[in-house]
Each structure stands twice: as structure tokens, then as C-alpha cells.
Amino acid sequence: MAKDIQPIFILPEGTQRTTGKNAQRNNIMAAKLVAETVRTTLGPKGMDKMIVDSMGSITITNDGVTILEEMQVEHPAAKMIVEVAKTQEAEVGDGTTTAVVIAGELLRRAEELLDQNVHPTVIAKGYRMAEEKAQDVLNAIAEDITEKDDSLLRKIAGTALTGKGAESAKEKLSEMAVKAVKRVMDIENGKFHFDKENIKLEKRTGDSVEASELIEGIVVEKEAVHPGMPKSIKNPKIALIDCAIEIKDTEIDAKIEITEPSQMQAFLNQEEKILTDMVDKIAASGANVVFCQKGIDDTAQHFLAKKNIYAARRVKKSDLEALSRATGARIITSIRDLNSKDLGNAGIVEERKIGGDEMTFVTGCKNPKAVTILVRGGTEHVVDEAKRALTDAIGDVAAALKNGKVVAGAGAPEIEVARELRKYADSLSGREQLAVRAFADALEVIPRTLAENAGMDPIDILVELKAAHDKKQKWAGIDVFKGKVVDSWAAGVIEPLKIKTQALSSASEVAQMILRIDDVIAGANRGQPQMPPGMGGHGMEY
Q1: pLDDT of residue 251
Q2: How many domains does the chain have?
Q3: Which of 146, 150, 153, 527 lies in the 20 to 30 Å Cα band around 7?
């Protein structure tokens, strides 16, 4: 008589598992949904998203990475797509929507091949080969750029700003982005170095975006600590101090015994003397402006004001470092060591009221290696979006200079790469050629989406684009405003090559990774076993 087979559980109760085709389909579906969410924001005619979080704060944006971060995506495969956007943002600062849309489309095309029983590893290998070839094609068609090509750099910044909320002030913001990058960049041994931390974006409501300004120096969100201090100092000598201008408390609990009132007075006098000595030391160095990272005692404030020294306290470390780069001042950690060589210079230091808040402007620096862009806008949401647009523009200009290569936009490079990939696919003999062809088809999602978002017929436009590229017009792209195919280079739609190469490599890698997953094992949440939405499975019973 056959014995009853006892079911064996190898994972905790409540663990859910999806395997094989189901796992792949769920993952691909999640990735496609993420791509679909941001797809409508692509291009100059893209729309914005309004995201309201659990606390009720509102974000209005068409910046891909901002949308995905604010959405708080839960599904594990969808999170991998969000990572693509984050990588793009960190590496280039723009092109996040492009990267996500391509990743989603690569998976959609892969799904069609899976339905034809093409093995996932074959598709992954084909995608890897296609991506390598695509990188070669992009590098071959790219044009050179140097820091002297101002008009080209302005077009790059303008392209990044087009379609964003700040587009009304496109000319002015483009000019500012290019100026800021050129001001803070360093060229050593022919190598371009740029740190985006050296461009500080300070936002304030209460005026139009057009009123935004580039300050050749630093704006600090602090005011003078004492009302008796001067509000403006010309040709200041600036001291940056990373220690407290106050009496330090002892590290251990100390008890001071005072037996008569005169001792109390002597104790207070001694405290005051220590503070006056500190202030005298600052004054003796020749400094008449002090930025202190720590606190400034009330008594010290009074003595500083008497000596006509402007002082701000609790200045952020990042601001202190920016001030150092802008003014040439050294950050000192002991007032005893302060001397005239440690001081920095500027044209003027003044306190100004902007949007209801007092701020300290350090301007007129001779050769500042750190600058501030004061971003203005009518409301909080407008300012936020203008700041995001400017971040994209600055990232693009820097990426173009770092890499020294640019391409035209408007869907032109994608069509050109797809065309070359199809030729490449014909030279392959294995099943990989199907994947390479799928990769080529997937790239066409960018021009197709640009056309759809502009209300044009995507089929007609794609046919026209391909015909133009077959006639060796490598920069034929879509003019979404006129609704026709134009030479996008001549139209001034220019992007850094890095946007395209980074988007392709990130999207391709994540698509390959998701394709190779055939088993999803999700541990139960304590107390309430559950799966991420759309990943229903069964307990681990065998």
C-alpha cells in the first residue's frame, strides 16, 4: 500500500513564489508600467505629473527621476527600473525619462520573442551585442565640442530646458547655466574637471523665473547675528572659522565653588576677557567679515558689532567650503592661528532681503571657483520645477564638455542607430539576430513617443524619418512645433553624447538582468504575509 506523501516546507510559512514564464511576465509587466508612467512627459510637448504624497505635499514635474522617486514604487522589478533613472541622474543629470522608456520598450520587445520561444539568455546576449554596436555607432556620428563653442553650449542648455516649466526664460537660463559651468570648471592636463556642488542653486519665491540671476560668488541663507553690524562692506576681508566663538563647556562635569560675590564677578570678567581676546584676534588679522560654522556668544556678537565686523553664525559646512572656493579664504579651526594670509577677498558683502528672508550676498569675487544661481518663481512649485530644469541644463553642459562630444536630438540619433543595427543584424547567423532587431525596433520608441506627445501621427513620421536617414541625413529629427521632419542640428536641438550612451547602457543592462530572472521568492512580512502587487504566487508546498 502506497504511503501518504508528507508535504515538505523548505521556506517559512507565508513565503510566496512565482516561477518560470509567470515570473518573467510579472517582472516585464511591472517594468513596462513604470516606463508607461513617465512616457507622456518625454519631449518638448510632454505633459507634467502631479504627485501628492501621504503628508499632502505636492510635486508638479516632468522630470523622470523626480516622478519615480516621489511615486514610492514598491514592486521589486519596477524598483530596478527606477534605479536606471537614478543612475542616469547621477552620471549625467538629464535623460532620465529617455533611459526608462527605452528600458521598458526593450522588455516589451523581449516579451514578443519569449512568446516565440526564444530563450531569455539568447535575447540577453543579443541585447548585449546590440548595445555594444549601438555605442560604436553613436561615437561615430557624434560631433566634437570645446569650451569655446559658446553658442553650441547654449543650445545644449536650451534643449534641456525646452518642455519644462522654466521654458519661458529659456534664453536667460541657458546663458546662466553655460556661464556657471565655465566659471567653476577646472582644466588640468587637458582634462576637464567639474563638481556640480560648486554651483549652488538657491531658490526663492516672489518674482518671475525671468528674474533669476547668476551671482559671481555665494549666497548664504544667513543674516548678520547682531543688528548693530554694518549691512554692507565693500572690498571685505573674509574669515572662515570652523570653531565656536564662545566659551566651551568642560568635557567633564566641573564644580566651581564661589564663596564671596567678588569671586563671582572675577569669574564673569574672566569669561568676558576670553571672548574679547577672541574678537581682538579676529580684528587683528584684518578681517571685517566672519562666517562661523558654530555658534557666536552674545557677548562676542556685541564686541564684533562694536568693531564694525559683519558676522554670520551656524553657516553650513558646504557653504563654508563654497565660500572658500569663491573668495580664496582658508577655513581655520583655531582662532589663535588666524592671520591675514587666511583671509579671502570679494567685491562686496551685503545683507539683502529676498522673498521675505534675509540673506548674505558675497559677490564680485575675482575668479570664483564656486557660484550661486538664485532661482526665482511665482510659487513654490514653479521655483522647484525651475530648479530641476536648471539642474538638467547644468548637467548637460558639463557632460558635453567632459566628454567633448555631442549629438543632435529630436529622435535623430535613435533612428540612425536603429538603421545601423538592422544592417548589423543581417550579418549575424544565430538567433541573436532576432534580439538585435528587437533592440533596433525598441530604440524607435523615442521618436514615436515624441510624435505621439505632440499629437502627430507616429507611423507617418517614422516612415518619413527613416526615408530621410536612408538618404544619409543623419540628423533628420522631429520638429514637434511645426509637426514635420527637419535637420535637428540646424534647428539647435543638441544634447551631450553621454546622455545617449549612458541611457542605452543602463537600459540594456537592466533589461538583460530582468530577463534572466525566472523565479521570484518573496519572504512574508512579519505578521501579514503579502506579495508586492501583481506578483501573486503560492506557498512553498512540494
Answers
A1: 61
A2: 3
A3: 527
Identify the active-site residue in 48, 342, 384, 392: 392
Residue with cell 539683502: 352
In which domain, by residue range, is 156 found?
Answer: 150-216+373-403
DSSP state of 102: H
> What are the pLDDT digits (tens) for 277-336?
777 777 777 778 888 888 877 777 787 788 888 888 888 888 788 788 777 788 888 777
Helix residue spans in 309-403 (DSSP H): 317-327, 380-403
| Confidence tier at 539 by pLDDT (50, 70, 90) | very low
Asked if 39 and 99 count as a contact pair (C-beta separation under 8 A), the reply is no
The answer to whether the CB of 200 falls within 8 A of the CB of 218 is yes
Answer yes or no: 144 catalytic. no
Residue 343 banded pLDDT, cuts 50, 70, 90: confident
Average pLDDT on 437-456 reads 84
Mean pLDDT score of the chain:
77
With bands split at pLDDT 50, 70 and 90, how would you rate the model's confidence at 8? low
In this structure, the answer to whether residues 351 and 387 fall within a common structural domain is no
DSSP symbols for 452-513: HHTT--HHHHHHHHHHHHHTT-TTEEEETTTTEEEETTTTT-EEEHHHHHHHHHHHHHHHHH
Report if residue 4 sits inside a domain.
no
Q: State residue 523's pLDDT score.
A: 66
Residue 392 is a catalytic residue = yes
Residue with cell 530563450: 119
Per-residue cell: 436: 538585435
Beta bridge partners of 144: 405
Q: Of the residues 18, 37, 66, 96, which is catalytic? A: 96
Establish whether 63 is a catalytic residue. Answer: yes
- Which of 48, 63, 342, 384 is catalytic? The answer is 63
In the set 18, 87, 97, 449, the catalytic residue is 97
The CATH number assigned to the domain holding 434 equals 1.10.560.10
Q: Are 485 and 493 in contact (CB under 8 A)?
A: no
Specify whether 480 is located in the same domain as 501. Answer: yes
